[in-house]
Specification:
mainly alpha, extended
């Protein structure tokens, strides 16, 4: 998901490119696509669904403008059927069901058990000071010859 500030930045950049500062997105028609049940944007930013609390700062004003741009969206098409995983094995069916349940915050114990089987095993952390990652100078001497 993008933040309110990112929505503002996209619009401002298009306005500059199109030299049209009176229209959102420089007068360009926009198609926004995504998963509206996904995680919020990374960092301490205001999501499109979040509350813009402070509009007294420049960043707050840009967040408010970005949120206003989002609210000007006039046409929404919501796809309800997952077509990517239409044909499936038994494992695919379990994953698809778990993802669908996760989307609506309704994971079952079976979903969680299945998802745990997909988790990567803990790997050994290597350190850069290990000998195999160190250049002992023998390569440099070889290059000089």
């Amino acid at each position: 998901m993008i933040s309110c500030f990112d929505m503002y930045r996209i619009s401002a950049q298009l306005a500059q490119v199109m030299n049209e500062f009176e229209e959102p997105f420089g007068g360009m028609n926009m198609i926004l696509a995504g998963d509206f049940a996904q995680l919020p944007p990374v960092g301490k930013v205001v999501s499109l669904y979040g509350q813009v609390n402070d509009s007294s700062t420049l960043m707050g004003q840009k967040n408010a403008l970005g949120k206003a741009l989002w609210h000007q969206t006039t046409t929404v098409v919501i796809l309800r059927q997952n077509m990517r995983q239409k044909s499936q094995t038994e494992k695919d069916a379990k994953l698809r069901q778990a993802l669908e349940n996760m989307r609506y915050k309704k994971c079952t114990t079976e979903d969680i058990d299945y998802l745990n089987t997909l988790a990567a095993e803990e790997t050994v952390r290597h350190k850069l000071r290990d000998d195999r990652f160190r250049d002992r100078g023998d390569r440099i001497d070889r290059d000089r010859d």
